[in-house]
Amino acid sequence: MNHSNSIDAVKNEVGISKHIRITHLNSPSIFETENGAIGTVLKCEGVTFDVEKDEVLNHYKFLLHRAITLLDDNFAIFITTHRHKEKMSQKGQFENDFLRDLDAKYHAQFKNSQMYTNDIYITIIFKGITSGKMGNGLSFLNRLKNTAIKEAKKSARQNQIKSLLEKVSQIKSLLSTFNPRIIGENDQAVGYSELLYFLSLFVNAGNGIKRQYAFSSPISKNIKDTKKITSLYPNGNVAQYLSTKHLFFGDTIQFQGSARSDHLFASIVSIKRYGQESASIMFDTLLHLDCDFISTHSYAVESKDIVLDSIARHIRRMKNVDDPAVSQVNELHDARDLIASEQVTMGYHHNTVMLISNTKEVLENNVTQCIKCYSDTGFVAVRETIGQEAAFWAQIPGNFKYIARSSLITSENFVDFAPLHNYRTGYSDKNHLGGCVTILETPSKTPYRFNFHVKGSLENPSKGHTILIGGNNSGKTTLMTFLDAQASRYQGNTFYFDRDRGADIYIRAIGGKYSILSPSHKNETQFAPLQLPDSAENRQFNRDLLIRFCMENDNDILSSDVIEMLTDCVHYAYDHLSVDHRTFSSATKILPIHFEKWSSLRRFLKSDGKYHEGDYAYLFDNHKDALDLHNKVGFDLTHFLDHEPTHIHTVLMMYLFHRIDLAINDVKTN
After folding, report:
1. What is the pLDDT of residues 382-432, one digit of tens each?
2. Tell me, what's the pLDDT at 288?
3. Which of 58, 327, 519, 531 has the most CB atoms around it within 10 Å of its CB?
């Protein structure tokens, strides 16, 4: 090729921006197309569906349908699902070799398998008045250039923006269950334009551009130019800033980066023929595909008058030819009534799925699996060939003229096709611990960030609330110890109340102390509550403990005289006995011989030569306390759960909880 031909080839090459109708941003969250349409984008977490009951799914559908029916024929909506790979990483560090090795081996599995995140976007476009004489008149005015017309257009744009924002606010409120937010409103905090990032997904194989502040030297630029360069938003046509890849359309779509190895391949699957029925879970199987993809559903609302006229003509046509399909005629009558009463709208729908892969071989398999997802629901989907390029550009919001395969459907059908379903993802920000406890893999290969707490912060910590329920031998202990091991990345304390020594090995492996509480392990089960430092809190606790000693059961009620005498015993111990002699045997010597609760109390006292040692004297009537609260502690309570009455178990737990509370609040206990 000579020099002249090469220049001609460059001139004849059509730029990517020529196919993108979006030209500029009116605000960080509002874009405008070359024909004056404006739009904004909501990002939704979506709602879970895999374990929900039918009535819950129907309620989600009802909410979404109410939002869709707010849109008249001046609006169109795009629902985009971007499924993409996500690298797994967590904060925190471990201080124990066993915990460190366990974490490394657990997370190694994520290096050998792909994990995906499903991002859901709703683009709401205000097309303006597009039908009838008024629409034609506005189209003519848009082509005029004089000053008066420019002012009129500016005023019309402001009215359009107001109408769009009002509609978006209503829809956002209705979809609060789906956790929507307007992208672009938080650009300064995240450091890039979220709206431009979303728009760049389509032309970069799902690898959006996070356009940040451009570097500039204030020495070489004046203040005005420096402000322009450091803007998050480009000057001029934004479509020219969206792509970082070369696009080649052939058997597949090739996204070619600057390096030879920087390439991705894609194919587009479209609906060719619709099924007879629709349901909100029909396309959820797409969320199980083991690949990146961008799914697009568009719905351009048609004028109610046009739809009703079309239905009436169709009914007349069927009657004129004596069509035997009576049920279809009845359905058309029902549809006409619903549309006339504005309970349902109708509009033109199109759906594509752009599947993305590193190799053509893997891409072929992904296309096959995608088409199968459609065929399993009674739909016919095809891989685009001749219409591939048009289908590619039709994904981008506002590119209506590229849509080749569209069908008139009801708003109820549309919410079935794009129900905003997603898998639970958990969260890793705004956490009391600083990050999530661990990452779990869902059946759809999406990560679930597990937490013990609801969202909170270090300044406003949320309380733990997790409960784990399961049958015998279902793996509860394994799961609990694993979650504790993962939570240890934040250097917290663990107090593990165990049965049948299930966590014995684990607690010892992580360097903790494990105590078997039973009469046969008295060296581990001897406590001395009166050895606790003198404080109002400890005096109150020991008084409550003595009261419990004197109760025959949890429902027993003591007289005020008995309680007063027990209170005197505690004060006597702290005021008159040395630390070495502060035991319950010594403290209760001041009780009168006729004390009415001696029989109950002596169960917890050691022998004084006159009376036998109580059955539970080994528990609390000691000179030394065996309880040593490490940051990881386990207690085996099997004996007390299986062989002792409830009120004995109660006094033991009272002491353990009191000591744990002191430890958590960093109160000295000796």
Report:
1. 999 999 999 999 999 999 999 999 999 999 999 999 999 999 888 887 777
2. 94
3. 531
Looking at 421-495, list the stretches that DSSP marks H as alpha helix, in order from N- to C-terminal side: 476-487
Residue 165: name the closest of 29, 341, 316, 331 by CA.
Answer: 29
In 240-258, which positions are buried (b, 16+ CB within 10 angstroms) versus exposed (e)?
ebbbbbebeeeebbbbeee
What letter does residue 579 receive in the DSSP assignment? G
Answer yes or no: is 147 within a domain. Answer: yes
Nearest to 36, CA basis, from 44, 28, 26:
26
Angstrom distance (rounded) from CA 125 to CA 205: 23
Pairing of strands 447-450, 75-85: unpaired
φ, ψ of residue 23 to 5 degrees: the values are -110, -35
Report the distance separating Cα 478 and Cα 501, nearest Å: 12
The candidate with the shortest Cα–Cα distance to 579, out of 524, 534, 633, is 534
Does residue 470 sit within a domain?
A: no
Of 11, 14, 9, the C-alpha closest to 393 is 14
> 99-132: per-residue pLDDT in tens?
999 999 998 888 877 889 999 999 999 987 554 4
CA distances from 269 to 62, 232, 286, 378, 614 (A): 28, 35, 12, 15, 80
Model confidence band, residue 303 (pLDDT cutoffs 50, 70, 90): confident
**What is the DSSP pairing of strand 513-516 with strand 632-636?**
parallel
DSSP code, position 145: -
Q: Residue 420 in contact with residue 46, Cβ under 8 Å?
A: yes
SS (H, E, C) 260-295: CCCEEEEEEEEEEECCCCCCCCCCHHHHHCCCEEEE
Residue 489, pLDDT score: 92
Total number of domains in the chain: 1
CB-based contacts of 525, cutoff 8 Å, min separation 6: 515, 516, 517, 518, 519, 618, 619, 626
Task: Read off the pLDDT of residues 597-652 as tens digits, 9 standing for 90 and up.
Answer: 999 999 999 987 777 889 999 999 999 999 988 889 999 999 999 999 999 999 99
Residue 14 lies in a domain: yes
CA distance 212 to 196: 11
Cβ distance 566 to 550 under 8 Å? Answer: yes
* Cβ neighbours of residue 136 closer than 8 Å, sequence gap 6 or more: none
434: pLDDT confidence band, cut at 50, 70 and 90? Answer: confident
The alpha helices in 577-643, defined as continuous H runs, are 584-587, 598-601, 617-620, 638-643
If one compares 442 and 464, the residue with the highest pLDDT of the two is: 442
Do the Cβ atoms of 647 and 550 come closer than 8 Å? no
pTM (two decimals)? 0.82
The secondary structure of the chain in percent helix, strand, coil, rounded to multiples of 5, reads 45, 20, 40
In the chain, the amino acid numbered 641 is: L
Lookup: tokens for 462: 């949320």
The answer to whether position 150 is within a domain reads: yes
**173: domain range?**
3-87+114-302+345-417
Q: Which one is predicted more confidently, 218 or 210? A: 210
Give 615's contacts (C-beta < 8 A, 6+ positions apart). 603
CA 2 to chain centre: 57
**214: pLDDT strictly greater than 50:** no
Tokens representing 408 are: 């008139």
Q: Tell me, what's the pLDDT at 556? A: 85
- Contact indicator for 94, 509 with CB cutoff of 8 Å: no
Q: What letter does residue 428 receive in the DSSP assignment?
A: S
